Amino acid sequence: MVLAEDKESSLVELRRFQPKVVTLDLGLPPDPANASAGLELMEEILKLSPSSKIIVVTGNDEREVAMKAVELGAYDYYQKPIQPDELKLIINRAFELANLEEESRIHRRNENMRFHGIVATSPKMLAVCQKIEKVAPTDLNVMLEGDSGTGKEVLGRAVHHLSKKESKPFAYLNCAAIPENLLETELFGYDAAGFNQGQSSSLGKIEEANEGTLFLDEVGMMPMSLQAKFMRVLTDGVVERVGSREATSVTLRVICSANSQLEQQVQEGKFREDLYYKLNEINISIPPLSERDGDVVLIARTMLNKFNQQFGRNIKGFTKAAVQAMEAYSWPGNVRELENKIKSAVVMSENTQISPEDLQIDESQLREMPLNLRQVREAAETRAIQRAIVLADGNISQAAKLLGLTRPTLYSLMDKYSIHS
Ligand SMILES: Nc1ncnc2c1ncn2[C@@H]1O[C@H](COP(=O)(O)OP(=O)(O)OP(=O)(O)O)[C@@H](O)[C@H]1O
Fold first, then answer.
1. In a 3-state reduction of DSSP, which class is residue 319?
2. How far, in Å, CA of 395 to CA of 180, rounded?
């Protein structure tokens, strides 16, 4: 419990402690008989800490003032003389409500963060998630472009789960992982009747995905001969299995992933232009991890929890030096590399906190920092704010406290740097 005797000291304590519940006697010095200073203070408290529950304490004959306070945002009022047991009851109820509201805020935020397995807080990735939400319900084909390990597959699956086809099949095929001669049967299926080799017929991924979504990973690796055949599936809506002349109707939405060289492949005649445009109805470009301010630490913490559970470990967090190293590292292998480094650190570390050595970060890959002072300051402020928000689990009051700022100042900085909680 924190006590304050006047307006100034109560505002100082409020900034320091961000209390969940405040009891406020409206009769403040220097004129305790007049409630107007008390009401003004109440409004200031609510501006600084909107989630605080304020219980105003008024004189016995000040019911009207009490009602006015409630109208202005007080949670409840209590008329003197004080009966400790009664007041305690009201205070306990206020704490319960404040806790419930906080839980629900955390829950809502976690829901947002767990956007189908995608952990993100950076403006760039939040913009990608917004695009995905927008495009998912349309039936347009989507091309996800980005470097290896940036999360194209998880995002592709999110498109399917957010689409009208969620309850329909989702079939996945990695065009780079299957030898060229087997890719055709994987994709189009196989009809044993056309051959005499004792093999049984099989359904291809196209038919498997019928009425749902087909995800083609690394579509740029599809050989030219199959590109022509696949283009026919998309334009005519029919598929013929290898060894068969019979055409089966299919309706498909295709999501594919590609690296940044696909457009060049098209220019060089190595990938069909018509297929490229058919698959690229919507293009979503996924930024490398090094361009996602604040994501590294957030993803690292999420993965630490996941691997602690998976491997029965109890590593508490990251040392300051580890956080700095993670932020300065360029992550050429993107999220997959981060995932692997955290996994190996969780399994191997002998410490309670993960150190830079546990992460085996290659120091030659640490990024150079800019020299321009404004840029340095802005980047540092952005990172510090994002880190504080992550450490405070999204609680802005808590984050402001960690940063030594007031909530309104933090909000205006978040606005300035387009940081979302
Ligand atoms: N934003 C994210 N939050 C949490 N996990 C992620 C995120 N992005 C990727 N991952 C994880 O990182 C790993 C690599 O992601 P994914 O396979 O989707 O990348 P990719 O771009 O398809 O890679 P590649 O091009 O090499 O196939 C996966 O284990 C995935 O779950």
1. coil
2. 52
Residue 332 tokens, joined:
């050429």
Contact criterion met (CB below 8 Å) for 224 and 174: no
Cα dihedral sign for 125, 126, 130, 132?
A: positive
This model of the complex carries an ipTM of 0.98
Gap from CA of 150 to ligand 1 centroid (Å)? 5
Which atom of ligand 1 has the smallest separation from the CA of 302?
4
CA 145–ligand 1 middle distance (angstroms) = 13
Which residue has the CA at smallest separation from atom 29 of ligand 1?
336
CA of 149 from ligand 1 middle (Å) equals 5
Which is the closest atom of ligand 1 to the Cα of 295?
1
Q: What is the pLDDT of residues 320-369, one digit of tens each?
A: 888 888 988 989 999 999 999 999 999 999 989 999 899 998 776 666 65
Burial class (CB in 10 A: 0-12, 13-18, 19+), 262: buried
How far apart are the CA of 319 and the centre of ligand 1, in A? 25
Please name the residues in contact with 168: beta carbons below 8 A apart, sequence gap of 6 or more: 211, 212, 213
Q: What is the pLDDT of residues 8-31, one digit of tens each?
A: 888 888 877 778 899 999 887 777
DSSP of 50-115 = TTPEEEEEE-TT-HHHHHHHHHTT-SEEEESSP-HHHHHHHHHHHHHHHHHHHHHHHHHHHHHH-B
Pairing of strands 247-249, 238-240: antiparallel
Among candidate residues 383, 364, 380, the one with its CA nearest the CA of residue 372:
380
Quote the tokens at residue 140. Answer: 């347009």
Burial letters for 378-416: b for 16+ Cβ neighbours within 10 Å, e otherwise? ebeebbebbbbbbbbebbbbebbbbbebbbeebeebbee
Q: Which domains does the chain possess?
A: 7-112 (3.40.50.2300), 123-287 (3.40.50.300), 288-368 (1.10.8.60), 372-421 (1.10.10.60)
Nearest-angstrom CA–CA distance, 94 and 88 = 10
Q: From the CA of 151, how far away is ligand 1's center (Å)? A: 3
What residues line ligand 1, using a CB cutoff of 6 Å?
117-120, 146, 148-154, 217, 257, 299, 335-336, 339
Classify burial at 359, counting beta carbons within 10 Å of its beta carbon; exposed 0-12, middle 13-18, buried 19 or more: buried
Classify strands 142-145 and 170-174 as parallel, antiparallel or unpaired: unpaired
Name the closest-CA residue to atom 10, ligand 1. 151
C-beta separation of 143 from 279 below 8 A? yes
3-state secondary structure of 143: strand
The dihedral sign for the CA sequence 342, 346, 349, 355: positive
